[in-house]
Specification:
Layout (H helix, E strand, L loop, with lengths): L7 E6 L4 E7 L8 H16 L5 E6 L11 H8 L9 H12 L5 E5 L2 E3 L1 H8 L2 E4 L4 E3 L13 H9 L1 H10 L3 E2 H7 L4 E2 L5 H13 L18 H18 L5 H15 L1 H16 L2 H15 L18 E5 L3 H12 L3 E5 L3 H20 L5 H8 L2 E4 L10 E4 L5 H14 L5 E4 L6 H4 L9 E6 L8 E6 L5 H13 L3 E6 L6 H4 L1 H12 L4 H11 L5 H8 L1 H14 L9 H7 L10 H12 L5 H4 L3 H21 L6 H12 L8 H8 L1 H15 L7 H9 L15
Parallel strand pairs: 2-3, 3-4, 4-6, 5-7, 6-9, 10-11, 10-13, 11-12, 13-14, 14-15, 16-17
Antiparallel strand pairs: 1-2, 7-8, 15-16
Length: about 700
């Protein structure tokens, strides 16, 4: 169990002869092994008691159950927790005890019925839900498959196509939709829920309502030939969407087994397959990411001081370019009042136009009604001066990366903003101490580094200096949570965590290209590894201007480990567009001659494994420096930074987790070998050398790190 107070089951028998069995395991009534065991015991008792005619299963405090307790997986995998024999829960508890019971049971669902929670509900003979309850099987997000009978019961309740969609995308449905699908039998308000379920259970007993064992329903299942077509189409889609993942295909195989060989055979195959995926690297990686993401908002020395976040209501944004307008969009979508400041009418109009376009694309996709659009956009107003900044709670500066311009802005802000106001900069590389040099309120200055497009990308880097007050960080963590971002708190340095860690990414790409590796081949291999795009497509997308400006900051600060290629500056001078370009060879030859390197046959034929390692090991090396310098508190924060800031594949567990799967010794030896041949750029840092010498994992905590936090 993850919590100190063990989960439990409570049973109360009413005068009507209905036993109400309640799952109690805050905060989401998760199903740990002891909760499932006591569910079976309560059921056995209810079946033996003569005063019990029927059963209602529900969850305490407005939540049915959020599913199996994920903290339990680590214990099972590590062998610290005794694991029930395969099929014990899905067959002995849910099929042979709940579903096969001589007394009818009804699930009363409010809040959440996810994963194992929904699987318990599907084993009951009927389900009553509230209109907004969420029902789903999101196990695939964790590299697992439903393991308590979900692969067999969901298709029989909602049909094959919808059940495949729900399992493969991990998307839940709300109570209203679940009613239309046949997943629930009635929808009522939460205060009528348990009483309706009690009456329903007695109606089932009296045969006024159907007594249905979902596992043996057949009316929603297509003929064998048609079912196979649907399953094969789902397989093709899964291979296309996630070519590196096996567990979606395992899930489809298990569903197919139940259709071909019958539901009991399907349950046994599910039990066996679940054991297999639970031990997989994908599952380990995705569960690591699940916990790492929840751990980013716990910052020693900051969030453990008992500080309460102050509510920010009104936010001002300076600059309505791509970043400024994206940040404004994210804030108004979460009901913040926003003032957008620009330098002239033309720029202001363009900035507000961008925010409108961001919202309009949501309307077009059906994610937002026209009425909600009007209400949301009314929270935004535009200004050309600082007069209306006198009552703002937070300012986010999102102007171009120019030090003296930013210094001037922060000196001006100090004159107009109230004393409690958070003064944030969205700079991606400039040192915050430099930005706040001309101000007195250095304790109010903080970095709020969003990633483009800011209303879509999930990461927010909160950067603080030696002077930033812990209260400001706690306030900003709260804003981050409210605008649905995953925040990571990082210390102040050039490039912070994400851009600094990934600055070797494009540089190694340039190094390889100048020695003869094909540009398109590099991007193909890196995309196949699982990145959303390779380093060159990324450079196109970000724009050469930004690439050069950011690159210059990093080259100035880390000259000994940068690879200076002129390829991007040459293409920028020539104003090249981001299209496949037959003239690309010409630019590569020109930059090659400036760098003074020749084509090396070894690089022309570089293997996929070598391309992946040469591109990512320098990133791992820089991540080690960021960790050793105390820019982040824990390696898991770098994993989240890589996954959410750069699109590193979550099923590889993030940059440090992936590196540890290969071993510090191996990474060190490769970098050391390349640095001897190609120079300082590849030289392993002291931290990596030290961990490799001990054979220690890179993500183990840093002893007495000179943390910048």
């Amino acid at each position: 169990m993850g919590s100190k107070n063990k989960g439990r089951i409570m049973m109360e028998v009413g005068a009507d002869g209905v036993a109400v069995i309640t799952i109690i395991n805050p905060p989401v009534n998760s199903l740990s092994l002891d909760v499932l065991q006591s569910l079976k015991e309560s059921y056995d008792e209810a079946l033996q008691r003569d005063d019990v005619k029927a059963i209602v299963v529900t969850g305490a405090k407005g939540k049915f159950s959020g599913g199996f307790d994920i903290t339990g997986f680590a214990g099972i995998r590590g062998g610290n927790v005794e694991q029930p024999k395969p099929g014990y829960i899905s067959i002995e508890v849910l099929s042979d005890t709940l579903e096969a019971a001589r007394k009818p049971s009804v699930a009363a669902i409010d809040g959440l019925a996810l994963g194992g929670g929904l699987e318990v509900a599907m084993a009951c003979h009927a389900r009553i839900s509230t209109p907004t309850a969420q029902l789903g099987l999101p196990e695939l997000q964790l590299g697992l498959i439903p393991g308590f009978g979900g692969t067999q019961r969901l298709p029989r309740l909602v049909g094959l196509t919808k059940s495949l969609e729900m399992m493969l995308t991990s998307k839940p449905v709300k109570g209203e939709e679940a009613l239309g699908l046949g997943l629930v039998d009635a929808v009522v308000s939460s205060h009528e829920l348990v009483n309706t379920a009690r009456r329903w259970a007695l109606d089932v007993l009296a045969r006024r309502k159907p007594w249905v064992a979902s596992l043996y329903k057949t009316d929603k299942i297509e003929s064998l030939g048609e079912a196979r077509e649907i399953l094969n189409f789902a397989r093709a889609q899964a291979r296309k969407r996630a070519p590196n993942l096996k567990h979606p295909l395992v899930c489809i195989d298990v569903i197919e087994e139940g259709i071909v060989a019958g539901p009991k055979a399907g349950l046994w195959k599910e039990a066996e397959a679940f054991q297999g995926v639970l031990k997989s690297d994908t599952c380990k990686s995705l569960i690591h990411i699940f916990f790492a993401q929840r751990g980013t908002s716990k910052v020693p020395g900051i969030t453990d001081r008992g500080l309460v976040p102050r509510q920010a209501k009104k936010v001002a944004i300076l600059g309505g370019g791509l970043m400024g307008s994206g940040i404004a969009t994210a804030l108004i979508l979460s009901n913040y009042t926003v003032i957008l400041k620009e330098v002239n009418e033309k720029f202001l109009e363009a900035g507000i136009g961008r925010v409108k376009a961001n919202l309009q694309s949501r309307v077009k996709k059906g994610k937002m009604t026209q009425e909600k659009f009007e209400k949301t956009i009314s929270l935004l107003s535009g200004v050309l001066d600082y007069e209306s900044f006198r009552d703002v709670d937070m300012v986010i500066e999102a102007v171009i990366e120019n030090v003296s311009l930013k210094q001037q802005i922060f000196a001006d802000l100090e004159k107009y903003c109230p004393p409690h106001c958070i003064l944030a900069s969205n700079t991606s590389t400039i040192d915050l101490n430099l930005i706040g040099e001309r101000t007195k309120s250095q304790d109010q200055i903080v970095g709020a580094h969003f990633f483009s497009p800011a209303h879509v990308m999930p990461l927010l880097e909160i950067v603080h200096t030696k002077h930033t007050s812990p209260q400001i960080i706690v306030d900003l963590l709260d804003v981050g949570k409210k605008i649905k971002k995953t925040p990571i708190v990082v210390g102040n340095c050039t490039g912070f965590a994400v851009n600094r860690m990934f600055f070797p990414y494009t540089q190694v790409g340039l190094f390889l290209v100048e020695r003869g590796t094909d540009v398109y081949q590099i991007d193909r291999v890196i995309t196949k590894f699982g990145m959303p795009m390779g380093p060159f497509r990324l450079a196109d997308l970000v724009g050469f201007g930004v690439g050069v400006a950011t690159g210059m900051q990093l080259i100035d600060n880390f000259p000994e480990r940068t690879y200076n290629s002129m390829l991007i500056p040459i293409m920028q001078d020539d104003k090249r567009e981001a299209n496949p370009d037959p003239e690309l060879k010409k630019y590569i030859e020109k930059s090659r001659s400036i760098s003074g390197v020749a084509v090396d046959p070894k690089f022309v034929k570089l293997s996929e494994k070598d391309i992946v390692e040469m591109i990512f090991f320098p990133v791992v090396n820089e991540a080690c420096r960021v960790f050793a310098e105390g820019i982040v508190v824990k390696a898991a924060d770098l994993d989240i930074a890589a996954v959410m800031g750069m699109g590193f594949p979550p099923y590889r567990g993030g940059i440090m987790f992936w590196a540890d799967s290969l071993g510090s010794k191996y990474i060190y030896s490769r970098l050391e070998e390349w640095s001897k041949i190609y120079g300082e750029f590849f030289k392993p840092c002291a931290f990596l050398a030290e961990r490799a010498a001990k054979g220690a994992p890179l993500s183990a905590p840093v002893e007495l790190a000179k943390s910048r936090l």
